C-alpha cells in the first residue's frame, strides 16, 4: 500500500508534512512492514500556496491491515494538520492494487506537478476517473501533492538524493533551537562533498538548521543514506524526538524545462534557456541585480539575482552585453530568477586609450577637447582614441547561488561532472 499526503502545515502555526511522515513510518510498523525509504518529493517551487518548500511525502508499506492503516493515518492528519490556517488544505491518497493505467497516469502527474501548475479540479478528476481512495480536506488542494507522491513511488527511475531529518521534542517546538555550530562545521568538513548545504562558508551561515516554528531541528542532504547518517551522528545539540531518512528529488533540477525561446516561457515554471546578456547589469533599491537577457530570436526578458542570493550578485554584475550564457531559473512576474548560470563565452572588453605614435611608438597626448591626439616629439596626429583589451573579471563556466539561497530542487554544482564547474560553498 502506498500512502501519500500533503499540505498539513502552516507558516505561522508550525508542523511539517515530513514530521507526519516520520511519525507514521514509526507508528505504522504496528500494522505492517515499511518497504524502502519514505519519499520527500518537492513539487513546483513557484506555487504561491506553498508553506515553505512545496513538499509531499509518500510511504510504502506491506500490510494485510489496510483499513486499520487508513484509520490511523486519517486520525493523525486530523489531529496534527493545522486546519485553522486558511492555507492548509490537506490531502491524502491510499493506493492499493494499482494497474498499469493508473501507474502511467500517476507517474506523468508526478512529473507535471514538479514542472507545471495543476488545478485542484484536475487532481479531483484523476481520483474520480481511477476510483482512487483520495481524501481532501477543505478545498482539497493537498490532493495534488498526495497524487504526485504516489506517482513518485510508482516511478522506478528518477534522479535522487537523500535527506536525514531530525525532529525536536514537542515541548521545544516554537522555541529557539540549540545546535552546536562547531559540530555542524566538523560534520560538514568530514562529509562534504558527499553531503552539501550544511553551511554557507562565503556568507558565514549554518544553513541546515531552519528558523521557522516547525519541528525540524536540522536536515542533512547528501549522496547516500550512509553519508548523511554519518554527518548527523557528528552533530551535537538538543535532545531530539526522532529522525527519518528520506529519499528525495531535492538537488536534481527536476523542475527545469529546457526551452528554445523566451516566447515559450510561462510564469510559474522553471527553465534552462540559452541566449545573450543584452544590457549592463544594474542594482536597484533593495539590492536586487537585474539585466536584460536576449534569446536567439532577439526577444528580451528581465533576469534577476535577488538580494537573498548575496555574493552571487557580484558575479552577475561582472557580465557584459554580448556574453553568451545559459540561465537556469524560474519565471515569476515575467522575470527569470537565476538559480544557476553557465557562462559559455565572454565577449571581449575594451577601454579607450591614447593612441600610439606610428613613428616613435610612444603614447600620444590629447591635442585639446575635440581635437584628437598628437605626438609632441614627432608631431604626428590621430583623430580617434585607440582601444585596449581589458582582462574580464570572470571566467567561463557554470556558477550557482550560494547554499543560503538554494532552492530545494536545484542541483548543487558539486553533483555535476565537468571541469568548468564553480560550486558555491
Ligand atoms: P508542507 O510541509 O505542508 O508540505 P509546503 O511548503 O510543502 O508545506 P504546502 O503547504 O504543501 O507547502 O502547500 C503546497 C500546496 O500546493 C499543496 O496543497 C499542494 O498540493 C499544492 N501543489 C503542489 N504542487 C502543485 C502544482 N504543481 N500545481 C498546483 N498546486 C500544487
UniProtKB/TrEMBL annotation:
Which organism encodes this protein?
A: Methanohalophilus halophilus
Q: Which residues form the TiaS-like TCKD domain?
A: 2-131
Specify the TiaS FLD domain's residue ranges. 141-255
Q: Start and end of every TiaS C-terminal zinc ribbon domain?
A: 354-394
Query: Which BP terms from GO are recorded?
Result: tRNA wobble cytosine modification
Annotated protein name in UniProt: tRNA(Ile2) 2-agmatinylcytidine synthetase TiaS
Q: Please list the GO terms describing molecular function.
A: ATP binding; ligase activity, forming carbon-nitrogen bonds
Alphabetical list of HAMAP family matching this protein: tRNA_Ile2_agm2C_synt
- Provide the function of this protein: ATP-dependent agmatine transferase that catalyzes the formation of 2-agmatinylcytidine (agm2C) at the wobble position (C34) of tRNA(Ile2), converting the codon specificity from AUG to AUA.
Where does this one sit in the cell? Cytoplasm
Q: Can you name a GO cellular component term?
A: cytoplasm
Signal sequence bounds? none
Question: Keyword annotations for this protein?
Answer: ATP-binding, Cytoplasm, Ligase, Nucleotide-binding, tRNA processing
Xref: InterPro entries: TiaS-like_TCKD, TiaS_FLD, tRNA_Ile2__agm2C_synt, Zn_ribbon_TiaS
Task: Provide the family line.
Answer: Belongs to the TiaS family.
Q: Which gene encodes it?
A: tiaS
Amino acid at each position: 500500500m502506498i500512502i501519500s499526503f500533503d499540505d498539513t502545515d502552516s507558516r505561522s502555526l508550525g508542523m511539517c508534512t515530513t514530521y507526519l511522515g516520520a511519525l507514521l513510518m514509526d507508528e505504522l510498523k504496528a500494522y505492517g512492514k515499511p518497504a524502502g525509504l519514505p519519499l520527500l518529493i518537492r513539487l513546483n517551487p513557484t506555487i504561491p500556496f506553498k508553506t515553505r518548500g512545496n513538499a509531499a511525502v509518500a510511504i510504502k508499506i506491506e500490510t494485510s491491515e489496510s483499513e486499520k492503516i487508513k484509520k490511523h493515518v486519517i486520525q493523525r492528519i486530523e489531529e496534527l494538520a493545522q486546519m485553522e490556517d486558511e492555507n492548509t488544505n490537506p490531502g491524502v491518497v491510499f493506493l492499493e492494487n494499482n494497474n498499469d493505467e493508473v501507474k502511467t497516469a500517476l507517474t506523468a502527474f508526478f512529473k507535471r506537478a514538479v514542472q507545471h501548475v495543476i488545478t485542484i479540479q484536475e487532481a479531483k478528476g484523476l481520483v474520480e476517473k481511477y476510483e482512487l481512495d483520495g481524501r481532501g480536506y477543505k478545498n482539497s488542494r493537498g490532493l495534488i501533492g498526495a497524487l504526485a507522491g504516489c506517482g513518485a513511488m510508482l516511478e522506478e527511475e528518477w534522479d535522487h538524493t537523500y535527506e536525514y531529518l531530525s525532529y525536536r521534542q514537542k515541548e521545544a517546538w516554537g522555541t529557539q533551537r540549540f545546535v552546536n555550530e562547531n559540530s555542524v562545521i566538523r560534520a560538514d568538513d568530514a562529509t562534504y562533498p558527499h553531503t552539501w548545504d550544511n553551511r554557507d562558508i562565503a556568507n558565514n551561515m549554518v544553513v541546515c538548521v531552519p528558523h521557522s516554528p516547525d519541528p525540524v531541528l536540522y536536515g542533512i542532504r547528501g549522496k547516500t543514506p550512509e553519508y548523511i547518517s554519518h554527518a548527523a551522528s557528528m552533530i551535537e545539540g538538543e535532545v531530539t524526538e526522532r529522525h527519518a531518512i528520506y529519499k528525495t528529488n531535492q538537488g536534481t533540477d527536476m523542475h527545469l524545462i529546457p526551452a528554445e525561446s523566451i516566447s515559450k516561457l510561462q510564469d510559474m515554471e522553471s527553465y534552462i534557456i540559452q541566449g545573450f546578456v543584452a544590457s549592463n547589469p544594474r542594482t536597484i533599491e533593495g539590492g536586487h541585480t537585474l539585466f536584460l537577457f536576449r534569446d536567439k530570436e532577439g526577444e528580451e526578458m528581465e533576469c534577476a539575482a535577488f538580494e537573498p542570493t548575496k555574493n552571487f550578485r557580484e558575479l552577475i554584475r561582472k557580465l557584459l552585453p554580448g556574453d553568451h550564457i545559459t540561465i537556469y531559473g524560474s519565471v515569476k512576474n515575467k522575470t527569470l530568477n537565476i538559480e544557476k548560470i553557465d557562462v559559455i563565452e565572454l565577449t571581449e572588453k575594451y577601454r579607450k586609450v591614447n593612441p600610439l605614435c606610428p613613428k616613435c611608438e610612444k603614447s600620444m597626448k590629447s591635442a585639446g577637447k575635440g581635437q584628437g591626439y598628437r605626438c609632441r616629439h614627432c608631431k604626428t596626429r590621430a583623430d580617434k582614441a585607440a582601444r585596449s583589451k581589458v582582462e574580464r573579471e570572470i571566467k567561463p563556466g557554470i556558477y550557482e547561488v550560494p547554499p543560503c539561497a538554494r532552492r530545494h530542487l536545484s542541483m548543487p554544482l558539486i553533483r555535476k561532472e565537468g571541469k568548468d564547474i564553480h560550486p558555491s560553498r
